Task: structure prediction
Amino acid sequence: QQPVQSPQAVILREGEDAVINCSSSKALYSVHWYRQKHGEAPVFLMILLKGGEQKGHEKISASFNEKKQQSSLYLTASQLSYSGTYFCGTENPGGEYGNKLVFGAGTILRVKS
Amino acid sequence: DGGITQSPKYLFRKEGQNVTLSCEQNLNHDAMYWYRQDPGQGLRLIYYSQIVNDFQKGDIAEGYSVSREKKESFPLTVTSAQKNPTAFYLCASRAGGYNEQFFGPGTRLTVL
Result:
């Protein structure tokens, strides 16, 4: 099942903050966050693993609530370069090689000057 | 530099022709994936492979085929059975275990 992202779209002015949420109906092992600019490939931002481990860009912060099967991405002091579509990809517990990611529909973020 | 390459960047084909999209990685990753993205849409999984000589269907495998004869290569063939093949195709790879997944630059396929 596809995770649900909210909001669908958000418009910010430079310097404002935003939170993007990702919610799953199934137990999660990890949540992955990506940003995609128009016409380009998604760029990896962060991975959050069950148990609290995180890997990603130091200027990006996110949380993972295993019990609620939810993750949130926090964008603070937004810059024009933050504009794009943000996707979360969720992963259920799987075998040795992990499991396939299932992506949400995306959240469109636009930062205005 | 390690990375994922996809070629070509743009591809035009006539309706009814099969076409093969290339994906190569030199990251020594075990797992590789193919996604399809339509305008304004999310990423839908076509096929994935977690080890050489093995692959599994994703959510929208009909009309597509893949092979995984080498660890670094995972070509995707869009066959004439795919009813609406015009889309942006993304290849991705991932090391074993629960690690980051990285995407290639994509191939934009247009069927005329």
Q: What stands out?
A: Residues 65 and 71 of chain A are 6 Å apart (CA to CA). The mean pLDDT of chain A is 90. Chain A touches chain B through 26 residues (CB under 8 Å). The radius of gyration of chain A is 14 Å.
